[in-house]
Records
---
Amino acid sequence: MANVVVVGSQWGDEGKGKFVDWLSERADVVVRYQGGHNAGHTLVIDGVVYKLSLLPSGVVRGQLSVIGNGVVVDPHFLVDEINRLRGQGVTITPDNLRLAENAPLILSLHRDLDAFRENANSGLKIGTTKRGIGPAYEDKVGRRSIRVMDLAEPETLMTKIERLLTHHNALRRGMGLPEVEAQVIYDELMAVADDLLPFMDRVWHLLDAKRRQGARILFEGAQGALLDNDHGTYPFVTSSNTVAGQAATGSGLGPGSIDYVLGITKAYTTRVGEGPFPSEQDNETGQFLGERGHEFGTVTSRKRRCGWFDAVLVRQTVKTSGISGIALTKIDVLDGLDEIKVCVAYELDGERIDYLPASMGAQARVKPIYETLEGWSETSAGARSWADLPAQAVKYVRHIEELIGCPVALLSTSPEREDTILVQDPFQD
Ligand code: IMP
């Protein structure tokens, strides 16, 4: 039995939702292992639209869904999301949803800090989702988080909050923000404890048991590999590890439990927020891609920056995430272009390089080196077999495979689930 990790191979928004849904129907367990409600997945099932941020996609189809320890959980947001989906007729009970006891919580003071830093005129603007993700992960690594299990121990919760506030109130004083009373945080947490505690579980144990029973586990990544805190365009990244290896750490399973990594890859490139983007097209081409591809953020509604496919970046994330095969999405957005460019290398200070340099300065200085390919006038939208695709589109896909050193396992030609060309089934690798 194969266990599959789905990751974004660019800066997120590659169209993971469609494939996660397709795979989750055939999985026994679906696990979120990093990020939080900075993610946004839209699922369309039988014409009904479900918007998920924190809940694993499997929950809509009734599969056992797990929020792992690597996720940062805003407890109020989670309760609201559960209630919203229940309102749409989705059954969510401890039978089909489990929450890791050791997952750290996002508190109101994390949201305050995220927004304050982003709005401050001085310092580096990252363009975060302002949902408190970064500050919550900082507290986790700083060993002062309040975690899900702490809700079950109200007698010691106050002491933990006071310890956390020693740090936060010092910061807040320095920033000119009002201090926070421990009682306020205590009440905030107790207001949701009864709703959340029934879902709490020893997730590492549950997943180990499932794995031994031969269950198929789908690990659902959020964001994209270039937003990874180690391997991405640091500091313009998110605060978690988004590469596939995190599926193991963020759920409590060993690395040997991952059999296949599916890298969701858009046929061009987009990015939300600040940071380097060598193949960005801040011009008519970018506007064409944005309009055709409906490139607006699911969580913040921000307009996404758009550009040509960057093979240098994806070639690198194929390596840093150990991607076995890619699912290429949105090729139909390129229909009708006379020519299509692909970034194949960079020029850095007069030299040609074939990788993304690690330093922020060098990342800002790299210039894309393009190859130009002939476009196609026919439509690829809705194609369900290679024979349905325009010949030039097939050439484009084959060329991408060569440039990134990884095969296309799936090709998506519209948001509809059936408009997919299946080359290799990740679960039957
Ligand atoms: P944060 O995750 O809210 O701290 O934001 C850090 C960076 O990651 C910003 O550039 C965000 O726009 C980006 N980001 C966070 N979540 C997503 C996502 O789900 N899709 C695309 N970009 C994201």
---
Amino acid sequence: MTVTEKAFAKINLCLDIVSRRANGYHNLESVMHTIPLFDTVTITKSKEISITCSNPAVPADSSNLAYKAAVKFFEKTKIKDGASIHIEKRIPMAAGMAGGSADCAATLRGLNRLYGFPLENRELEELGGSLGADVPFCIRCGTFGVTGIGHDFFPVSAPPKFIYVIACGSEGISTPAMYKEYDERYNPPLCDEPKNLFTQKSENLRIALEKGEKEEIFSSMFNCFEEIAEEQRPEIKKIKSIMMENGAAFSMMSGSGPSVFGIFEDAEKAYASKNAIENEGIFATVVSSNNE
Ligand code: ATP
């Protein structure tokens, strides 16, 4: 028996670090939004857990988050079985789009379906949360405000339907390295019991999304890692300029980078931007939330 699940990428419409905990975790604020760029995860019942992936750069062993998801699923459900998992990779890797977390979430959802739903969504999210901060979000999908270490959600209005150009240089960025650099530069205050509420900067975006005011949405979007990442990967600035020159309404880096998204309302401009970025030898793709 086989099931196939889509593993959707996310972008951060805002991202801020507000403090850090004594254990080294960071308290963040973000609006995370699922976009229709996805890996396809195909799971077949099997004697053992195994992974194959269309992208040879992705580890096809027990370090793959989809493999770890399967281990956790069989442990938790006490089902004595295995699964061969194939990932058709489209989400750029180590790019700040939660590709690994999305595969992990899709594997949990897929296994749960394959075995007749032994776990409730809440249990899947708990399992996922033990594997990565972004996994519970990737299990839910949609648009959510996220606080704390990334596990506390509240619903936020989705942005209007847009066309997105996603572009990414070939050299990924390590998320832990980015947090380390952020700490050294900005020294966020210590706080072990943060309020699970947005502070003003993120709240401005939440309100703009609620009103659906495009200009207000764009002027409220921000990413606290963008400055550091742009210093490390000059192509980020270049991609943003190409997008804006080709008619993007807005453009920003996602997560800890280096992927960049451009927001377009006109498909022709989006494809012109994609072509211009590709002419620089940089990966780019167009996805449309109109097709969701
Ligand atoms: P995030 O936005 O959650 O920080 P990311 O998009 O920056 O994640 P990923 O694409 O998830 O980064 O890759 C980060 C690392 O995770 C990779 O360098 C890779 O070694 C490892 N990894 C494990 N499983 C996967 C997977 N299924 N797909 C991609 N990378 C994976």
